[in-house]
């Protein structure tokens, strides 16, 4: 298959490039509208089969109010407010404006609802609350924009009113995410270009991965746009497409271009014949590795599809599309580019004709590998101790959810959240209990409400309200902030209180508990699928049982170290000033799940790069240690450079003002860096040196399975026919490795 692909790409290189250009134009035309079709509602974090979702649907059908939607207008007044004073004109204007909105179902203010807690403690402001009907994307964006316009047009409100609440917060999270992504692209792309020119030692070669990243991102956006026709896709997908598309294109391009240079320099044919052979050998060797690497990363991200939360599923789907897009560029477009360029790949190179510099790099990596293998136990133990030390903080990991408090203070919903937390009496968390009860159940429900009221932490329980013929609602107020431990513990006790009928719970605390339970229920199946498929794929690639499980263990160490860093930085608050965030004492619940799949896949990616070259060297007859040294020497520079560039690409997400995006970007960047610096450089050669031939062991039945279905790394058996007589005796010297 790869032989046929390589020959086709060389023979039809101009047609392939023309078709790719047409595809890029189509992708740009259709994919450019993706941002307008992404969602960021609270329902993205719900398990559709959860009891809390059912409870909200019952409330919505009975009252027309969506419990997850809402506006908060924070109105500042000139004169101090008191609960019994006349309503100031600006507050009356806010109430009237909200009541006039078509999506608003109910408005609450301190006077009409007799709620003095809606007045700030200093009396200088008050909040007006609005319950809404269902608003789905993009109708929520349109509604918020219309509300902002109406407030700005009202002379009583425009200079003294801030907009907040769940609906405004969701819309502004999307806006902040889009703006921050644009900033990350603006800052990171020039830095990457400079680094790529240095790594590739030339402008032409350095531009290829960057252009490939743009191609992969546009293609992934096209695929994701099609996906939005069938399901909700979170706005965070754009961040993943940017970082993963750019990072993988850099990884794959490094491997392919380095191998092309090496094959061209090692050939005996001149001109077009030498280019054709180098392209074929590149696709047969590095191309196979790229294809397998892409497959392993996609498999890792597919574990996110096991979780029922739309947020995780959408990131898994868009991530897989991004991986496939990067692989398409590396396996189809890039070989055609190399076939057209040939030796001109080194045009505008400041290291042209200085292959001795690359040879020195290879020798340094080879000496490092031999140095590690002379004391394998020392390096193995040291590497494991270092990684476990970095991972140690993970033992105290805690989780929280996403609400308006994650927004920066530069947007109105973030300011409202801050003022509510600092200038107002602490608002009790609300728990809404929906019971499947008949019309004559009021007495039993009164007794149940009394039991709920006796739960420590419950401040008030409202009288039961009949929603329809088969459902009742009881509202309870719980002390503490909804996502803090005290309120969550109280709500859990309420949920454990014996109810006379089927009871379902919703509200911020109950919704987070349902999300946490859903993730916990699916964590083991997802982990088993990820581990099982990774072991299977690595076995098919290497033919070794040990190397398959070694890859699993090494990946686990890299991911554990990344989690430890996240806890130390984001949960404990270290470096919060430098990274510009406020520590909440916990990590956002879904970020570690996404990070686990992403970092696991990227670690396997680098593992495949290294093992593929070791396996190829071993296939030429080298002993185990020599093969490891060759593999390290030929991929050490590539993997290190790729990790550094990937660190910049995905680490750019750390510039986001949203903490959970920072967590994902910096966590993945750190995992990649620690994997390249410690795992591939020290642990892998040390462990393989200690095992020797045993590292490649497999029982007889599995050996036969690998012979039939396994991957051949493109050894001598794939070589084309010998060069014809009269071909040149020596090839021009080109740079052979990154």
TrEMBL record:
Gene3D superfamilies: Multidrug efflux transporter AcrB transmembrane domain (1.20.1640.10). Keywords: Cell membrane, Membrane, Transmembrane, Transmembrane helix. It is a multi-pass membrane protein. Residues 91-377, 470-699 form the Membrane transport protein MMPL domain. The chain crosses the membrane at residues 236-257, 290-312, 318-342, 377-397, 528-549, 556-573, 593-614, 635-658. It holds the Pfam family MMPL. InterPro entries: MMPL_dom, Mycobact_MmpL. Residues 713-738 are annotated as: Disordered. Residues 723-732 have a biased composition (Low complexity). It is found in: Cell membrane. Belongs to the resistance-nodulation-cell division (RND) (TC 2.A.6) family. MmpL subfamily. This is MMPL family transporter. It comes from Kitasatospora herbaricolor.
